[in-house]
């Protein structure tokens, strides 16, 4: 394999880490929305954190090797619209995901406190789980990642 193939392989590996982790986090967050017991919600949020770690690692790997690819090959240029848009979306996805993750951490901490205090269902926890801003941040990040993937596959304008 030549350098281009290695760089592409590692870039795509990062993309798979992102997609797998995002899917995992989304599944566990949706499962948490359907639970009432704080202790169950804590477990599901901790499992979603594993997915979030995969997303963070994958975003870094995909970015590093994607930038290296652009710098290394002749048929992709820094001024290609799809490259610029993908980089902007990368920052958007990370900003939204980070903000959503901070809000989810607060929800998990509330669930941990409620689990330690008797593990009774709570209207406050239910409201935090269904907070429209938290959901919009997390799912908005996911939509940005899907848009990046679409750009990587179709490369419009090239």
Explain this structure.
The protein has helices at 3-33, 38-72, 81-116, 123-129, 132-154. Helix 1 runs antiparallel to helix 2 (38-72) and helix 1 runs antiparallel to helix 5. With 158 residues, the protein is an all-alpha fold. The mean pLDDT is 96. It is built from 5 helices and no strands.
Draw up the topology in text:
Layout: H1 3-33, H2 38-72, H3 81-116, H4 123-129, H5 132-154
Helix pairs in contact: 1-2, 1-5, 2-3, 3-5
Helix content: over 70%
Overall residue-averaged pLDDT value: 96
The number of helical elements comes to 5
The tally of strands reads 0
Biggest β-sheet strands, sense, barrel: none
Per the principal axes of the C-alpha atoms, what is the gross shape? elongated
Radius of gyration: 18 Å
Helix-strand sequence: HHHHH
- SS-based structural class? mainly alpha
Strand content: under 5%
Task: Please outline what is shown here.
Helix content is 84%, strand content 0%.
Descriptive tags:
mainly alpha, 84% helix, 5 helices, 158 residues
């Amino acid at each position: 394999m030549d350098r281009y193939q290695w760089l592409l392989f590692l870039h795509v590996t990062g993309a798979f880490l992102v997609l797998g982790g995002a899917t995992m986090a989304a599944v566990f967050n949706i499962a948490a929305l359907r639970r009432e017991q704080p202790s169950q919600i804590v477990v599901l949020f901790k499992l979603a954190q594993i997915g979030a770690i995969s997303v963070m690692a994958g975003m870094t790997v995909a970015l590093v090797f994607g930038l290296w690819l652009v710098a290394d090959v002749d048929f992709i240029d820094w001024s290609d619209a799809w490259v610029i848009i993908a980089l902007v979306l990368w920052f958007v996805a990370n900003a939204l995901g980070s903000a959503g993750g901070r809000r989810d951490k607060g929800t998990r901490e509330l669930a941990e406190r409620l689990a330690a205090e008797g593990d009774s269902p709570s209207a406050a926890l239910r409201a935090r789980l269904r907070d429209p801003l938290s959901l919009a941040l997390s799912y908005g990040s996911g939509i940005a990642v899907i848009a990046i993937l679409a750009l990587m596959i179709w490369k419009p304008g090239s």
